[in-house]
Automatic annotation (TrEMBL):
<dbReference type="InterPro" id="IPR002575">
    <property type="entry name" value="Aminoglycoside_PTrfase"/>
</dbReference>
<protein>
    <submittedName>
        <fullName>Phosphotransferase enzyme family protein</fullName>
    </submittedName>
</protein>
<dbReference type="InterPro" id="IPR050249">
    <property type="entry name" value="Pseudomonas-type_ThrB"/>
</dbReference>
<feature type="domain" description="Aminoglycoside phosphotransferase">
    <location>
        <begin position="37"/>
        <end position="266"/>
    </location>
</feature>
<dbReference type="Pfam" id="PF01636">
    <property type="entry name" value="APH"/>
</dbReference>
<dbReference type="InterPro" id="IPR011009">
    <property type="entry name" value="Kinase-like_dom_sf"/>
</dbReference>
<comment type="similarity">
    <text>Belongs to the pseudomonas-type ThrB family.</text>
</comment>
């Protein structure tokens, strides 16, 4: 059998379905139907039961989260569901009272963490997001930060620190991929140096707290005038400005959306203190995190975009180094 990363998208999903069905048995859902929702960093299936119930099943395919880190994610989701009015995916308990299963996958040659969550209705905000919706995103972000300020991790749970510029993930930036040139690697190294310096200054004066750490428009649903937030798989200990910078990365080049995000946040809690230079550096740092993730990803559709994604990422990072501003709308980017 060829390595998983060399399989087609369809073949990869076919190798994952038996694992998904085995995971459902632990929840007494063995007769439910599975419908693929996303096969990217993780793989998500919609679960429909004969009784009309609906859930979401997540297989952590590319994530390298430890059981203690996933336990922290589950515990925070439980606490948020209990303590706040936010709409979130609540983890379902299996028949033996567990929120997480570890199911062996033959194609990958390892166990995959599997979890089932309550269903969130609606559609992702995506590219259709409006300033009014981004103000609500800002309010939700501030509410998450306020809750995290007073919430303590339970025994047996842990979160990695976002003081690490690569967010606790292994570096793939020094590997020979055939896409990241020596010149491009120099650009990445310099951006990482600047991000590390800024984070060092910030963490010297602030106490980190749990963050979502992946609040972008495709991790947010809108339904009947209400926002729901999901995909807490990247949650970690960090500083509020980092969550805002991560969101800003996906909002460019729409300054009206970025301004609405900050406006909504300020309506609930004081904005964190930061300079424009620090903010731009953290936004650029997000570009390095995603580049590192893409280089190490096994999903066929993501590996297929490497020939244009990598040089485009380097072009954007070089522009940041030259002009102090991170942008996605630059001339000369390769089109897919």
């Amino acid at each position: 059998m060829p390595p998983f990363e060399h399989l087609s998208q369809r073949a990869q999903i076919g190798r994952l379905r038996p694992t998904a069905h085995e995971a459902l048995r632990a929840y007494g859902l063995q007769d439910a139907r599975l419908r693929l929702l996303n096969h990217g960093f993780n793989t998500i299936f919609r679960v429909d039961t004969a009784a009309g119930e609906r859930y979401a099943l997540r297989l952590n395919v590319n994530s390298r989260r430890s059981p203690a880190q996933i336990a922290a994610e589950m515990a925070w989701l439980d606490a948020l569901s209990r303590d706040t009015p936010l709409q979130l995916p609540t983890p379902l308990l299996s028949r033996d009272g567990q929120r997480l299963q570890h199911i062996w996958n033959e194609a990958l040659g390892r166990e995959l963490p599997a979890a089932v969550f309550s269903w969130l209705p609606g559609r992702v905000l995506g590219a259709r997001a409006t300033p009014a919706q981004l103000r609500e995103v800002g309010r939700v972000t501030a509410t998450l930060h306020q809750h995290a300020h007073t919430w303590a991790l339970p025994d047996g749970a842990e979160l990695h620190s976002l003081q690490d510029p690569l967010m606790g993930t292994p570096s793939h930036l020094d590997e020979d991929h055939g896409h990241l040139t020596p010149e491009g690697r120099k650009v990445v190294v310099e951006v990482l140096r600047r991000v590390n310096a800024e984070l060092g200054k910030l963490y010297a004066h602030e106490v980190p707290r749990p963050l979502h750490a992946d609040l972008h428009l495709w991790n947010l649903h809108w339904h009947a005038g209400r926002l729901s937030v999901f995909d807490f798989d990247d949650c970690a200990l960090g500083l509020p400005v980092q969550d805002l910078a991560i969101s800003a990365y996906y909002l460019r080049p729409k300054p009206e959306l970025e301004a609405a995000l900050l406006e909504g946040y300020a309506a609930v809690a004081p904005l964190p203190s930061f300079t424009p230079a620090t903010y731009e550096t953290l936004v650029a740092g997000r570009g390095v995190v995603l580049l590192n993730d893409v280089l190490g990803n096994t999903t066929a559709s993501i590996r297929a975009v490497l020939p244009r994604y990598v040089p485009n990422a380097i072009t954007k990072l070089r522009h940041f180094l030259d002009y102090g501003e991170f942008r996605h709308d630059l001339p000369g980017l390769l089109q897919g």
